Amino acid sequence: MPAAPHTYTFLGPEGTFTEAALLQVPGAAEAIRVPASNVNTALDKVRGGEADAAMVPIENSVEGGVTATLDAIASGPELRILREALVPITFVLVVRPGVRLEDVRRVSTHGHAWAQCRLWVDTHIPHAEYIPGSSTAAAAMGLLDGAPYDAAICAPIVAAEQPGLQVLAENIGDNPGAVTRFVLVGRPGELPAATGSDKTTVVVPLPEDRPGALMEILDQFATRGVNLSRIESRPTGQYLGHYFFSIDADGHVLDARVADALAGLHRISPATRFLGSYGRADGQRTEVQPHTSDQAFRAAHAWVEGLRSGTAPDSDGETLPAG
């Protein structure tokens, strides 16, 4: 009997950059794909078993972390990041047929898209009012449904697939090299294999607000030679001044240096949440110094065990009786 097809959910509607990221997943084009109206809804479908995994945006090269995703995966039943995808971001301004640029008074799009097109907007339609949209595609589709705004900022593919939309301007992003990073999130289970080009994501609550508390967290990585590619603070929402840190570290939990750093984090902050170890989308390999390699950790542990058993090797590697 053939296996049931995978069901994926993503930040919809169809035609979003998030769906483009999902289509990078092997087999996703043939899978069941269910759009969600927001990140929380997408992740809740995974937690509830309605979907096998969800593709959601987590970081933009211009705007930084996507706070809705960072907050949603930091609380509630645990989830795991299974893989990541990178999507170059380009934007167009679309309107209903017949609308001219000088007619545009209200523009809708997702908040990150609006922030990435502000220079163009300030130059060409400086008096336009921003109307927040749940996604770029949803904003564009709203024009077809008679939404009370004049234009939308969206991906070129949305405009190409909707004959009822007219493109007034192309390539309106302020940064032509903008890229958004997306993550495929599933329920806890078997970890992806280590590849030598990996990331590990954790959420670390600040145990207490005192001088040196953040340094103590960072030292767990620094002393073990683990590089951090992203660290962001987010309020827990419990009370003013209470934060957690969302961290991406280079390496896999199967790497001794990363495992040792995570153990150190857990000693400091027992509520630390492991969100997964997975392959980097860019394939960039992690540089490991000799003294932080798995071999170095094994040798160090063997030396300590020798001390405990009374057969510690001397500095030249020759075993001497203790005492």
Quick recap:
The protein has 323 residues and is α/β, with parallel strands linked by helices. It contains ten helices and 15 strands.
Write up what this structure looks like.
It is a single chain. The chain is an alpha/beta fold and 323 residues long. It folds into three domains: 1-88 and 179-189, 3-Layer(aba) Sandwich (D-Maltodextrin-Binding Protein, domain 2), CATH 3.40.190.10; 92-170, Periplasmic binding protein-like II (D-Maltodextrin-Binding Protein, domain 2), CATH 3.40.190; 190-292, ACT domain (Alpha-Beta Plaits), CATH 3.30.70. The protein is built from ten helices and 15 strands. The model has no long low-confidence stretch (mean pLDDT 90).
Distance between the termini: 67 Å
CATH topology of the largest domain: Alpha-Beta Plaits
CATH homologous superfamily assignment of the largest domain: ACT domain
Largest sheet: 6 strands, mixed
**Helix fraction bin:** 25-40%
**Total number of domains:** 3
In the predicted model, the low-confidence regions spanning at least 5 consecutive residues are none
Which architecture of the largest domain would the CATH scheme give at its second level?
Answer: 2-Layer Sandwich
